[in-house]
Design brief:
Elements (H helix, E strand, L loop, with lengths): L3 H10 L9 H11 L5 E5 L5 H8 L3 E6 L2 H13 L5 E4 L13 E7 L7 H14 E12 L10 E4 L2 E3 L5 E3 L3 H7 L3 E10 L5 E9 L1
Parallel strand pairs: 1-2, 1-4, 2-3, 4-5
Antiparallel strand pairs: 5-10, 6-7, 7-8, 9-10
């Protein structure tokens, strides 16, 4: 994970933006959560738009993000709409502050691809620990087919840092399968956008 100051500045610069539920959250709810209930853990939640969406659908949401500025804006939104969602500043590669088998669902949109392979393996292990049996982890990451793949300084396989210090770890379907070998992969689909952006959207079930 790169410098927290970079994230804080990005969130300050985009204050008042990116506060709408994402298409990925809607897809996950419609196809994998609807008519179910329970607890959902939103990892790298940013300003909390998807957390609020899941909360409003009746799920009990806990949200984590690395950036104090993101949490500040998230909590301002909660105050505006008279909500209470547990939202903590937390570096998820250092472990998750929850008991074993705590959640029916875990979710991360564009959060996992900022970590090294070593960090990701620890994160996946922690996600498995806090999910209940047959719990679902739904996540979206940048694909190796993205327009920015290979640009900048190579930090490790499929991971690059640009001149501003911005880091991305690009995922292939093969890497997903290996990283989540202790899960059942229910969905792993590539989504390509006209501007050249490419994402992998994955749903994995705890065995």
């Amino acid at each position: 994970m790169f410098d927290k100051k970079i994230w804080d500045e990005k969130h300050r610069e985009s204050a008042g933006k990116y506060n709408q539920v994402t298409g990925f959250a809607k897809l996950c709810y419609a196809n994998f959560i609807k008519r179910k209930s329970g607890r959902l853990l939103d990892l790298c939640c940013g300003k909390g738009a998807d957390s609020i969406f899941f909360h409003n659908k009746g799920l009990k949401v806990s949200a984590l993000d690395y950036s104090p500025e993101a949490m500040k804006q998230f909590n301002e939104l909660q105050k505006k709409y008279s909500l209470f969602i547990s939202a903590l500043v937390k570096e998820i590669s250092e472990g998750l502050p929850f008991e074993d088998d705590s959640f029916e669902f875990a979710y991360s949109r564009l959060g996992l691809h900022y970590f090294t392979d070593k960090e990701l393996r620890k994160i996946v292990s922690e996600i498995k620990r806090v999910l209940k049996s047959e719990g679902l982890f739904m996540f979206q990451v940048k694909s190796v087919n993205d327009r920015n793949y290979g640009k900048g300084k190579e930090l490790e396989k499929d991971m690059y840092q640009d001149e501003t210090g911005y880091v991305r770890h690009f995922f292939s379907s093969e890497y997903v399968e290996e990283l989540f070998k202790d899960f059942n992969i229910i969905m792993c689909e590539e989504r390509n956008i006209d501007n050249g952006s490419s994402y992998l959207e994955v749903v994995a079930e705890k065995k």
